[in-house]
Design a protein that fits this description.
229 residues; alpha+beta
Length: 229
């Protein structure tokens, strides 16, 4: 059964006066879109309002996004100062994001660096990974390592060098290892909860205000395959 986050069940991983980090569930959408579903940003605002008994509007800045079917770490800014500094950190690639993915087809190499040129299709909301540069494409690069062989699947750890639209999904699909449940990128069947087995596992960054080093890890979803890693 799919559970979406609300102010009472929100999985908060880290919080101080400047930032709040949550563990996103499959059904959560980070920012509002045409579905009209309540975004995670609104849920976090409600959580802050309730927790601190705040009158009036709560400030919350969206720093980055995760695809709706993906789980894991999402970071929000609680002040405008934190937001502008975090935006700079993400823009300048001064954060380290680590993902976990479950695939059925074993990649050819135990670990590798993948470089593709991604071309986005707005109509289908997909990105196609090309080996060589094509018109309107953007260079995408990541490292992956097989971290565990499961009964029918392989668990990969992925470090992103760039942050492109559907980057991990399209690049793994391009090497013949689409993510479990990801029908959009060639997996043969959907997951029961409509999600995919891609999890934003870890985020490392310098705190935008205190300047301390932060390393935040998101527990995997309550799922038999995730729990076997």
């Amino acid at each position: 059964m799919k559970i979406v986050s609300d102010k009472n069940n929100l999985q908060v991983l880290y919080e101080d006066n400047h930032i709040i980090v949550v563990n996103k569930r499959v059904g959560d959408i980070v920012q509002g879109d045409k579905t009209g579903d309540k975004p995670l940003s609104d849920v976090v605002k409600e959580y802050i309002k309730q927790k601190y008994d705040k009158p009036g509007n709560v400030y919350l800045g969206v720093v980055h996004r995760l695809d709706r079917p993906t789980t894991g770490i999402v970071l929000f800014a609680k002040t405008s100062k934190a937001l502008s500094r975090l935006n700079d950190l993400f823009k300048n690639r001064e954060t380290q994001k680590t993902y976990w993915a479950i695939v059925k087809n074993r990649p050819e190499k135990e670990s590798d660096t993948l470089v593709h040129y991604l071309k986005r299709n707005e109509k289908s909301n997909t990105s196609k990974a090309h080996i060589k540069e094509v018109a309107n494409s953007k260079r995408a690069s990541l490292d992956y390592t097989i971290i565990k062989t499961l009964d029918n699947y392989y668990a990969l750890e992925i470090n992103l060098h760039t942050g492109r639209h559907h980057q991990i999904r399209s690049q793994l699909s391009a090497i013949g290892s689409p993510i479990k449940g990801d029908l959009k990128y060639g997996f043969d069947r959907s997951n029961q909860d409509g999600g995919i087995h891609l999890h934003a596992r870890k985020l490392e960054l310098t705190h935008p205000v205190t300047k301390e080093h932060l390393s935040i890890t998101a527990p995997v979803p309550e799922d038999r395959i995730w729990k076997s890693i």
